[in-house]
């Protein structure tokens, strides 16, 4: 499967799960030229310019099963950032960098839980996503603290969701979390 096909699958699954509008297409905003996922945003008077840079895997095939790898998780994170930013702009609500990171950490869990059967073992997936983590930025730095906070809060939040993600109560809870602003998101996550 090409990288563009994988991006389309990630976007479709997340949009469907959260009940989001089906456009714009993330593939129109992606460049494969980096080592790490980066979302560039420039806000103008009447427009929001967005560009998503992802690891350069476009030359090789990628399977949905490979999304557990560091590069694959960056694809999920990039699509998550893109979708969340677009949804917040569409609804004319503000967004913070911490919100983007926290939602992306939850979206990785959601996407992988809805995916392959082995991913449906929540404790193993939580360990992979939230415990076996290496940070690029040191603790005490702005980025390092933001990523650690997002990871820790997402771990607390999804620990309560060790039920079937297709169940309506869990789906409602995740959709509420998705649509919440930073203050409510932090409150929900900390309540764990």
What features would you describe in this structure?
With 192 residues, the protein is mainly alpha-helical. The chain is 54% helix and 10% strand. The protein contains seven helices and three strands. It has helices at 3-18, 70-90, 97-113, 122-131, 142-159, 168-179, 182-190, and strands at residues 30-34, 38-43, 48-55. Strands 1-3-2 form a three-stranded mixed sheet, covered by helices on one side. Helix 5 packs across helix 7 (182-190). It is globular and about 40 Å long. The termini are far apart. 29% of the residues are buried. The model has no long low-confidence stretch (mean pLDDT 89).
Features:
mainly alpha; three-stranded mixed β-sheet
Number of strands: 3
Question: What percentage of the residues does DSSP assign to strands (E)?
Answer: 5-15%
Instruction: Enumerate the strands of the largest sheet in spatial order, edge to edge or round the barrel.
Output: 1-3-2
Order of secondary-structure elements: HEEEHHHHHH
Using the alpha-carbon principal axes, give the shape: globular
Range of helix content: 40-55%
Distance N terminus to C terminus?
38 Å
Largest sheet: number of strands, sense, barrel closure:
3 strands, mixed
If you average the pLDDT, what whole number results?
Answer: 89
Structural class: mainly alpha
Unreliable stretches (pLDDT < 50, length at least 5) are: none
* Rg measurement, Å: 16 Å
Please report the number of helical segments. Answer: 7
């Amino acid at each position: 499967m090409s990288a563009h096909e994988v991006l389309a699958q990630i976007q479709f699954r997340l949009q469907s799960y959260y009940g989001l509008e089906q456009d714009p297409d993330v593939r129109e905003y992606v460049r494969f030229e980096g080592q790490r996922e980066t979302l560039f945003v420039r806000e103008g008077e009447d427009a929001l310019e967005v560009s998503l840079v992802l690891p350069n895997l476009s030359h090789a095939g990628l399977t949905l099963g490979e999304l557990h790898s560091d590069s694959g998780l960056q694809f999920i994170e990039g699509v998550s950032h893109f979708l969340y930013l677009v949804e917040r702009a569409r609804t004319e609500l503000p967004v913070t960098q911490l919100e983007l990171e926290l939602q992306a950490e939850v979206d990785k869990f959601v996407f992988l839980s809805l995916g392959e059967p082995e991913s449906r073992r929540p404790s193993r997936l939580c360990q992979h996503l939230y415990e076996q983590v290496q940070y690029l930025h040191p603790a005490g730095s702005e980025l390092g603290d933001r990523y650690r906070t997002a990871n820790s809060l997402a771990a607390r939040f999804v620990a309560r969701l060790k039920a079937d993600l297709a169940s309506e109560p869990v789906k409602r809870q995740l959709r509420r979390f998705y649509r919440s602003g930073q203050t409510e998101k932090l409150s929900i996550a900390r309540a764990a």
